[in-house]
Amino acid sequence: MASASDRPASRHRDGGRAQWHSPAMTRRIRRRYLGDRLFRAAGLAALTAAGLFLLLLVGNIAWQARTGFFQTELRLEVAIPADVAAGETPGSPGFGAAVDAYPWRSVALSALRERFGADSRGDLASLRGLISRGGAAVALRAAVRDDPTLIGRRATLWLPASEPADQWAKDRDAATALSERQVGWLESFAAAGDLKTHFNGRFFATGNSRDPALAGIGGAVIGSFLTLLVTLAVAFPIGVFTAIYLEEFAPQNRITDFIEVNINNLAAVPSIVFGLLGLQVFLNTFGMPRSAPVVGGLTLALMTLPTIIISGRAALKAVPNSIRDAALGLGASRTQVVLHHVLPAAMPGMLTGTIIGMAQALGETAPLLMIGMVAFIVEVPASFTEAATVLPVQIYMWAELPEAAYRAKTAAGISVLLIFLISMNALAVYLRNRFETK
Amino acid sequence: MPLVVTLATCLLAGGAAFVLCHQRALALEAERRCTLHSRPFHHGMLGAILVIPPGLVFMLVWLMAGNALVNPMVLDALPAGAVPADPALRDLFLNDVHNIAHDAVASSTSPVKEQAAALYAELMARGRTIVWLLTLTCALLMGALAVRKVAPGWRARDHVERGFRYLLIGCSVVAIATTVGIVLSLLQQSLDFFARVSPIEFLFGLHWSPQTALRADQVGSSGAFGAVPLFTGTLLISVIAMAVAVPVGLMSAIYMTQYASRRVRQVAKPVLEILAGVPTVVYGFFAILVVAPWVREAGEALGLTVSSQSALAAGAVMGIMIIPFMSSLSDDAITAVPKSLSDGSLALGATKAETIVQVLIPAALPGIVGAFLLAISRAIGETMIVAMAAGLAANLTANPLEAVTTVTVQIVSLLTGDQEFDSAKTLSAFALGLVLFTVTLALNVVALRVVRKYRETYE
């Protein structure tokens, strides 16, 4: 314990007056101000660190994503065999099936062989490594389906390059899995103007694939859309009605208190627990289909509900009582007061909360893994009960794959997801600002 | 008759009832030149209210009980001996039957299963038709009743408003039902699990390897379910995360509320909001792509062996994720302190830093502690970052450079991919979920109580 004589104030006292300009006091004051400046700098450093983390995160993803939206193609003169769909008239279902079943990869391979005159077994394997495994077949199939007169003729077509060739074309200095021979071939393609890297529109239209040239986020985006539609249809009305009940009608009693505490706690329950709930209740008890957007949507709805209720209550609280009193005074019933006057005034605030909740649901992954939305799905889903995946889960699945091409696809998928999320949040902020100025 | 058709029928009937009752009320008003007790709109709504809910109830009952009703009928119709007697195997059999009926991939098929699937599909279709007929009949009866009831003295509005009140109460109950559903489903499966593995072994066992062998006579066929390595792993990663999030989050909140100019705040607030809105799967990708290799290189430069899935990398990224959460909650706690306290301190000659450390933070401490508890609960329940950046190996270690696994990672790995029904492995995920739920619930309850108490002192 410091005695009274040790206290700084008394050390610099002379005859009861503080010696503000004594050297000891000046030093002390300087030290105290230095401490203040250091503390302030620490605060600024913390804030800067948070900003830098964000910059690093977004910068890195954008840097990785830069190649993910592009795909390299090679121009080849392909001899389309005459026997592709022998005996079928173009346009008939049999024609389509025959075209689909034809071994197109070998057609592409013989075109490459023709171009470089390579014959040995090793050369063939190297040539095969230049074009995309499934992509070449898809491109040839589409070309013949679009223009059946190509059959039996020679056509010049752009075919997707294989994953290593694609990586080489995007960054020629990086380490490559290609042999020198293959690089030489690719260089000859480039010299002849038969190699181009262009924006990959297919990326936005197709589902998942084992071939990076064909893999896209189209299926996942539609899956996310269907899932969120279910979430919105369930969570918005239930959330708004619950908020109205608790704020406008509920008597102040134990049950109401219990509901309130319950909602606050639900808001902090880890999302994966909602996944376990969805698995046990919707799949195991109700026997709903696995991996389906309807189950994912319901699970996410239960998870988003507390967010919507809490923001809805805040919006209702912000409506001045004079509006309620005026409406009641004119003879409206309590239901009419709420539905005709309070709810319209609170709607922008409720919508803001709902959009924020939807943005959370859009980015959520863990609960959907529990209900099997992590399946490998090639088809773009067309209904609420079909197996589907969603954008964040697609990102999770790609992130686990070792190929560099998938890393770029992952980053590209993340960019799309972030663009969606940022526009949703911007919409929420816009609504809030409009509401506040009113 | 698919359920969608039933739903459409029900809603269409409701719409028709609305229009009919509404028209009738309008006609009455015009014809008798009198004022009705309720507006035509209320008469219409009452019609819809009488028609739609019964149909919804039928559909809900069918959704919940349809399978339970049809399954025994399918099993009874099959020749004796075709169905396995063991309940677990029978569930598997039924599951295959359902999958075949839904055109999904079944684990195995056989003529008996095909036959059962055809029967199942037929019975389900018949059941759906019955539900449709019931809905339609009920809608017609109730609709006729509603139209007949329309009269000048009929107090339709009171009934509609009471119905509306019930709807509101029903919606509020969903929140409670969710909690009850979570507790029941976790408890039920956990009890099943604890019937096989003793709770003592689960909570205090030091060895975790849930991979059960295929044959019963193999060594370690029952798996080991000692969850302590998972708890310590979760704790280790959470501690690392809090070591990043608490100083950075708290200091940025202090700077934002006490020092920052309006312009800095205008930039910093959206930055923190965006950081908070980034999905966790993105943080996970960032962790494996950038932070984990960086931590490994830094460790190797110092001559340390670092696992490529080190707890440090996962924890640090999780810390970044929690910064905005910690910062916004501390921000609330600090702004709630009355200005008179800091004004008094400043007037006595304390510097701003002294005021903050000696007056503001002690006064806001309960709020900050609440924020801290909520942030820990976030860290414990976080899944995707650890699922991507932390390992699967259950190491019992306190070394942040080694790979550890967490409760959430194990839940994900146990429940994704091929699932065995009713095995200890699958059930253990629910036991872990129960532990997770209990711990986070306790943290939340304490945190919310602390925060609420603290708000009351200053209000």
TrEMBL record, chain A:
List localization entries: Cell inner membrane; Cell membrane
Q: Does the keyword Transport apply?
A: yes
Q: Which Pfam families does the entry mention?
A: BPD_transp_1, DUF3333
**Which GO annotations describe the biological process of this protein?**
phosphate ion transmembrane transport
Membrane-traversing stretches:
38-63, 213-246, 266-283, 295-316, 337-362, 368-399, 411-431
Entry keywords, A to Z: Cell membrane, Membrane, Transmembrane, Transmembrane helix, Transport
Give the matching CDD domains: TM_PBP2
Q: How does it sit in the membrane?
A: Multi-pass membrane protein
Q: Which family does it belong to?
A: Belongs to the binding-protein-dependent transport system permease family. CysTW subfamily.
Q: What is this protein called?
A: Phosphate transport system permease protein PstA
Source organism of this protein record:
Rhodothalassium salexigens DSM 2132
TrEMBL record, chain B:
Give the residue spans that cross the bilayer: 45-65, 130-151, 163-186, 230-250, 271-295, 301-323, 359-380, 429-451
Membrane topology annotation: Multi-pass membrane protein
A Gene Ontology BP annotation from the UniProt entry: phosphate ion transport
Q: Which Pfam families match?
A: BPD_transp_1, DUF3708
Q: Which segments constitute the ABC transmembrane type-1 domain?
A: 231-447
Key word Flavoprotein present: no
Q: Which keywords accompany this UniProt record?
A: Cell inner membrane, Cell membrane, Membrane, Phosphate transport, Transmembrane, Transmembrane helix, Transport
Compartments it resides in: Cell inner membrane; Cell membrane
Q: Listed GO cellular component terms?
A: plasma membrane
Q: Which GO terms describe its molecular function?
A: phosphate transmembrane transporter activity
Q: Does the keyword Transmembrane helix apply?
A: yes
Q: Member of which family?
A: Belongs to the binding-protein-dependent transport system permease family. CysTW subfamily.
NCBIfam families linked: phosphate_pstC
**PANTHER family associated with the record:** PHOSPHATE TRANSPORT SYSTEM PERMEASE (PTHR42727:SF1), PHOSPHATE TRANSPORT SYSTEM PERMEASE PROTEIN (PTHR42727)
Give a short account of what the protein does: Part of the binding-protein-dependent transport system for phosphate; probably responsible for the translocation of the substrate across the membrane.
The protein depicted here goes by the name Phosphate transport system permease protein
Annotated organism of origin: Rhodothalassium salexigens DSM 2132
